[in-house]
Design brief:
By secondary structure, the chain is α+β, with helices and mostly antiparallel strands. The protein has 5 helices and 12 strands.
């Protein structure tokens, strides 16, 4: 079906979350504001509702059948098969447990970082599987190897520095939690865009992305987001 023939007003969009709030990494106050922003966009938000099963016709959540033609699963990712390659145990997400220097237990010359590593952090949680964490881990291992090769003392155990959380909900709507600075709405949306542009590699890429975003903002131009498949008989 061509996307121009889809009537958005007739669509029913529901967000089902097993936890007490959406965006569990954020403070409860920001999660509430994010949920309200979604509701203003017409999204039904159901928290504390665990999806028990799904099929071609919908889902069963908290014992209730919810019919749906399109399902989008966004409940995390599975790690690579590194644990199987190495022949070691993994956690529920397939991540490899590592030592304090990110090396594999019993193999000091094998390092595991990024989404594939389960690195203890704080409050019984592991380091989140996000890009800043992977970059810090990569820099740590590189420094450790250089110091080893140079005959210098190795650095202290890896310590993750969490720089904050950002999430965009829609046009002029986002939530930001940066070291106690908590923002929502339009100002948070601007900060979210600025941070993402800043961390792009190369001045040219930053300028191009900024211009494309400004053009899309002023013209209300929509990106191409198509879900294709054969219609049912």
């Amino acid at each position: 079906m061509p996307h121009r023939s889809i009537h958005a007003q007739r669509a029913r969009i529901m967000l089902v979350e097993a936890g007490k709030q959406i965006l569990p990494a954020f403070a409860p106050s920001l999660a509430v504001k994010a949920a309200r922003s979604l509701e203003r966009l017409g999204v039904e938000v159901r928290t504390g509702t665990k999806v028990e099963s799904c099929d071609a016709g919908g889902i069963i959540a908290a014992g209730q059948r919810i019919e749906a033609r399109t399902l989008i699963w966004a409940a995390g990712v599975q790690a690579s098969a590194a644990a199987r390659w190495l022949g070691v145990a993994a956690d529920h997400a397939g991540r490899v447990h590592v030592e304090s220097d990110l090396s594999l237990a019993g193999a000091a010359n094998v390092f595991v970082i990024g989404d594939t590593a389960a690195v203890p952090w704080r409050d019984g949680k592991d380091v989140p599987g996000i890009a800043p964490a992977a970059k810090q881990e990569g820099a740590y291992v590189a420094n450790l190897l250089l110091r080893r090769l140079g005959g210098k003392p190795v650095p202290p155990p890896f310590s993750y520095r969490h720089q904050g959380d950002l999430a965009t909900i829609g046009r002029k709507s986002a939530v930001v939690d940066l070291s106690g600075l908590r923002l929502s709405g339009w100002l948070a949306w601007l900060l979210w865009g600025a941070v993402h542009i800043f961390f792009l590699i190369g001045f040219r890429n930053r300028v191009m992305v900024a211009m494309n975003w400004l053009w899309a903002y002023w013209t209300h131009e929509r990106g191409a987001g198509l879900i294709t498949g054969s219609p049912p008989p």
